[in-house]
């Protein structure tokens, strides 16, 4: 059973386990990550084993800063501009991988690119102390809802890992935005904690969309899924459904829902993103026949929220 240690007291123990090749759960600003030394193949393999994750699905390597990123990838002027503006923070850049840089091949899943992110807080301190990147997908069973608290991680993975570092609820609440930088073109692979419009404003160019295949984490059609089926953009609540609400007005039949949680009563998309995974898990615990989801606007962080909801509602793989 995993020990839960407050982040203020956890660095020494987390560093010991990371050096020993064991995965640990750590808080980041997005969601909790299942972290292990990205240069240690056995450690990375343990991430896949703990999560039950398909090995064709690549991982994000988390770095301490741009200098560390340059050891593992080539940063074009466009990539450097985005890194300088948004790091540390919830932006992952998919970049050409350097040959023989030392990352485990399991991190890139056979691709010639690597996904890099510079996190805030405890993760950054741990990476700096380790001196190597941490591979850190979300700390949950593969395809399930991402954990945004130490307690959520413990319920899912507590019997499979030794340590959960408790940093409290994560402030962003959805995973990072992933952008591939290719020949100075920017391709949005996954919407996330930074709105596409904000990235475009800094880059001075539009993000391309429509990427094919698995080029980065979080691109599988079915992902972030609770046990209950998910029904999107509902206009009414059916019998024995739980309701994931948004905004001040309710759809028809809301009063009869088995359980109701509102992502943001005021319609604030940032608050909605923060609450998304925790609310899905809580409604799943109600054991309703399905979870009905009220419409969420497709603007700003709403793009990331709708992306996660669509994957949660997709046919299970």
UniProtKB/TrEMBL annotation:
Domain (YrdC-like) ranges: 8-194
EC number: 2.7.7.87
Keywords attached to this entry: ATP-binding, Cytoplasm, Nucleotide-binding, Nucleotidyltransferase, Transferase, tRNA processing
Residues noted as binding ATP in the record, renumbered to the chain: 53, 57, 113, 138, 146, 190, 224
GO molecular function: ATP binding; double-stranded RNA binding; L-threonylcarbamoyladenylate synthase; tRNA binding
Stored PROSITE patterns: YRDC
GO (cellular component) term, any one: cytoplasm
Binding site for L-threonine: 30, 62, 117, 136, 176
UniProt subcellular location: Cytoplasm
Catalyses which reaction(s): L-threonine + hydrogencarbonate + ATP = L-threonylcarbamoyladenylate + diphosphate + H2O
GO-annotated biological processes: regulation of translational fidelity; tRNA processing
Primary localization class, coarse: cytoplasm
PANTHER family: SUA5, THREONYLCARBAMOYL-AMP SYNTHASE
Protein family membership: Belongs to the SUA5 family.
Function: Required for the formation of a threonylcarbamoyl group on adenosine at position 37 (t(6)A37) in tRNAs that read codons beginning with adenine.
Protein name as catalogued: Threonylcarbamoyl-AMP synthase
Native source organism of the sequence: Nitratireductor basaltis
């Amino acid at each position: 059973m995993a020990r839960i240690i407050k982040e203020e007291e956890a660095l020494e123990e987390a560093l010991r386990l990371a050096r020993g090749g064991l995965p640990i759960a750590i808080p980041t600003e997005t969601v909790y990550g299942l972290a292990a030394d990205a240069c240690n193949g056995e450690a990375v393999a343990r991430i896949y084993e703990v999560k039950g994750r398909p090995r064709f699905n690549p991982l994000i390597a988390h770095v301490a800063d741009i200098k560390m990123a340059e050891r593992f990838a080539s940063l074009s002027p466009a990539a450097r501009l985005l890194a300088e503006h948004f790091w540390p923070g919830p932006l992952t850049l998919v970049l050409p991988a350097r040959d023989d840089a030392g990352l485990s091949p399991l991190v890139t899943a056979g691709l010639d690119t690597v996904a890099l992110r510079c996190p805030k807080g405890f993760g950054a301190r741990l990476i700096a102390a380790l001196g190597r990147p941490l591979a850190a997908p979300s700390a949950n069973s593969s395809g399930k809802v991402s954990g945004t608290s130490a307690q959520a991680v413990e319920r899912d993975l507590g019997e499979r890992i030794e340590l959960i570092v408790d940093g409290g609820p994560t402030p962003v609440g959805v995973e990072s935005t992933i952008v591939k930088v290719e020949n100075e073109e920017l391709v949005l692979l996954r919407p996330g904690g930074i709105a596409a419009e904000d990235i475009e404003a800094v880059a001075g160019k539009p993000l391309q969309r429509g990427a094919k295949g698995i080029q980065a984490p979080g691109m599988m059609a079915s992902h972030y899924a609770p046990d209950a089926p998910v029904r999107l953009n509902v206009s009414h609540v059916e019998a024995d459904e739980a309701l994931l609400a948004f905004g001040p007005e309710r759809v028809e039949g809301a009063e009869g829902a088995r359980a109701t949680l509102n992502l943001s009563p005021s319609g604030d998309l940032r608050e909605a993103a923060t609450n998304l995974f925790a609310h899905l898990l809580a409604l799943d615990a109600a054991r309703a026949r399905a979870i009905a989801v009220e419409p969420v606007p497709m603007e700003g962080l709403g793009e990331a929220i709708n992306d996660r909801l669509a994957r949660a509602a997709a046919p299970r793989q």
